[in-house]
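Worked problem 6 (solution included).
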Amino acid sequence: MTFSRRDFLKLSGAAFAGPLLPRFQANRSAEWPQGVPLGRVTPTRIRLISRPHPDGRRLDYKHQDEVVQVLRSVVGEGFYPHNHVWFETPDGYAYSAWVQPVRLDLNKPVSRVPRDGMYVELSAPYSDARAEPDPEAPIVYRLYYSSIYQVIDRSVAADGSLWYRLNDENGVKMYGQAAHFRPIAEEEFAPLSPEVSDKSIVVRLKQQSLSAYEGKAEVFRTQMSSGRTYFGEDGTTLGSLTPAGEHPLWSKRASRHMSGPTARSRTSAPTCRSTATASRWLARPSASTTR
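Solution. The predicted structure is:
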């Protein structure tokens, strides 16, 4: 059974919160190529090396929020035993665990926002949300690729650029560049397999993988991050803050504000939000198991 990115669910993702940056990466979206695979660096600093192996020769450094072009994915030997995938860039190989796959797909802004608002998905590697619909206004958050937001209004800046007013349940007033957000069609919220009542999600901490089941049939699997480095240098399993056990799922939301420090505090921790399509598959209360 095959599911596309927009037809199924994006149940997993990585939330990275790095320490204080030695230098904050400015928004350089004008330099990003459109419609090609890109990667956003998530730790404070990573090495680009000569081959897809920890012993590769260092060629360059990249810092948090730098965006690189991804030429292809290759399998080599990883730093962690559950992940041996590397990204080849024009300047060397980057370990995939430290690079978020992203793209820049610009969108035509809507001419009118519905009365009850609309949901959008960020389709740029990142975008700086500002306190006013003005490219020079103070930054209140840095928003990251594929996160979901509710738009409640649109505004035209003095320079003619279009901005969306983004709803925030914490009461933060913020605006995002409209071209960076893909409107989510209503049918994308329609439940997947609504006739199936026996659904479950299984998270395997040792393998850092997530699977979705309908009954005993596995219908989806992906790599995931439980939010903390799980393996030591010798490859043995370390303790994790992720609680193991069985947990019921009782509610689903298209978007949820979960964030670390903001751009104002000179860090670049992402604002993490659930994906709109996750609730499509979980059409009924289900259960999750962490192992």
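Discussion: The first helix runs from residue 278 to 281.
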